[in-house]
Amino acid sequence: MNPNRPPKPARSPLAWVPTLYFAMGMPFVVLNMVSAVMFKDLQIADAQIAFWTSLIMWPWTIKFLWSPFLEIFRTKKFFVVTTQLLSGVLFGLAALTLHLPTFFAVTVAVFAVVAFSGATHDIAADGVYMSELNATDQAKYIGWQGAFYNLAKLVATGGLVWLAGWLYERFSAAGTETFDAYVQSWTIVMAILGIVLFALGIYHWKILPTGGAAAEKHSLREGLHGLREVITDFFTKKHIWYYIAFIILYRLGEGFVMKIVPLFLKADTAVGGLGLSNQQIGLYYGTFGAGAFLLGSLLAGYYIAHRGLKRTLFTLCCIFNVPFVVYALLAWMQPSQMWIVGGGIILEYFGYGFGFVGLTLFMMQQVAPGRHQMAHYAFASGIMNLSVMMTGAVSGYLSDWLGYAHFFVLVLLFTIPAFLITWFVPFTYPDGKDAAEKQ
Length: 439
Hints:
Elements: H1 17-41, H2 46-55, H3 58-62, H4 67-72, H5 76-97, H6 103-132, H7 135-173, H8 178-207, H9 220-235, H10 240-250, H11 252-266, H12 278-307, H13 309-321, H14 325-333, H15 338-367, H16 373-402, H17 404-414, H18 416-423, H19 432-438
Helix pairs in contact: 1-2, 1-6, 1-7, 1-8, 1-11, 2-16, 5-6, 5-8, 6-16, 7-8, 7-12, 7-15, 7-19, 10-16, 10-18, 11-16, 11-17, 12-13, 12-15, 13-15, 13-18, 14-15, 14-17, 15-16, 16-17
C-alpha cells in the first residue's frame, strides 16, 4: 500500500443501503405475494396457494440457526453477494419449471431454495447495516431501508404483476390458449427477476462495505458452540419474553391479510371478490399501494428520528393496524368504482409502511444489542416471520370457510392484542433520540 496515497473517502450509506434492501425485498415479496397471483393464474386453489406459499417462508423463521456461522466464516459482504447471485440463478430456473406437467410442486421446491438463500442474505445484509452504522445513523437511514425494501414490493407486485397481465393479453390476442398464455407471461417475468437479482449481486460485489473485518477460520464445533451461546444469551435478555410476544402480536393481523388480499382482489365478484385483472392489481395494489408504502416508510423514518422511538411506538402501531378496516369495507361494499378501491388500498399501504418501520427499529435497538447483534436481530426477525407464516398458512382455509367479508372482520379482532401490548412495552436501551439528548 502506498503511504503517500490518500485514503479512499467512505461511501455514503445512500450508495448501498437502498440497493441492499431492494435486493432483500425482492425474493421475499415475490415468494410471499407475487407467487400467489401467479399460481392463481395457473388455476391452483386458494387454500393450496396460501398454505404452500406460507410454508416455503420457513427459512425466514429459523434463520437464526445458521446466523452464528455467518459471523465466524468470511465477511458479511461475501454472503450478501453470493446469495444475490444464487437467487438470480434460481429464479431463472423457476422460469423453466413452469413448463413442466408437475410445475406446481417443482416450482414450490425451487422457491423453497430461494427462500433459504434469501433468508441467509437477510442475516448478512442486516449485519452490514448494523455494523457500519451507529444508532443515530440507523434511525436516520431506517426510512431509506424500509422504503427500498418496499420499493421491491412496488416493482414486484406492481411492475411484474402488471407486466404479466400485459404479456398475457398479447399472447391471448395472438391465439394462445389461456393457460399457456399465462405460463408464457410468467416465464418472462421470472426470467426478468433473475436478471435483476444477478445484476444487483455484481453491483454489491463492487460497492458494498464488508460489514466488519473478515473473520478467522473456525471449526464446526466452535460454530455449534456459538449457536448455543447465541440462543442462551437471547433468552436471558431483559424483558425478552415480553419482546417476543410484542413481535408476534404487532403483525398478527397483517399475517392473516397478506396472502388473502391479492386473491380477494382477483376473485370474481360472484364469490365475494372484486374481480380485478392482473393489470389492475399491478396498478392499484402493486404500484399505487407500494408507492404509498414507500412514502410512509420514508416519512416514518424521519418522524422517529425527530421524536424518538419510545415516544412514537404506540402511534406507529395504530397507524399500522387500523387501516386494515379498508379491506373489510371493500369486501362488504364490493365497489365497482376503481377510485374507491385504489384509494382504500393507498390508505392501507401508507399506514402499513409508516407503522412497519417502528417494529424494525424496535428489534434493532431493543432486542438485537449485545455481543451477538446480527444473530439476535436474525432471531427476532425469525420470530416475527413465524407469526406471519403460521397465520398465512391458515388464512386461505379461514377465508374459504367464512367468506372474504367475514374473514376481514375477524382480522380486525386479531389486531386488538397489538394495541394492548404496545401500550405497555418496556424499553431496555435508550433509543437514538434519547441517546443523542444525553450526549
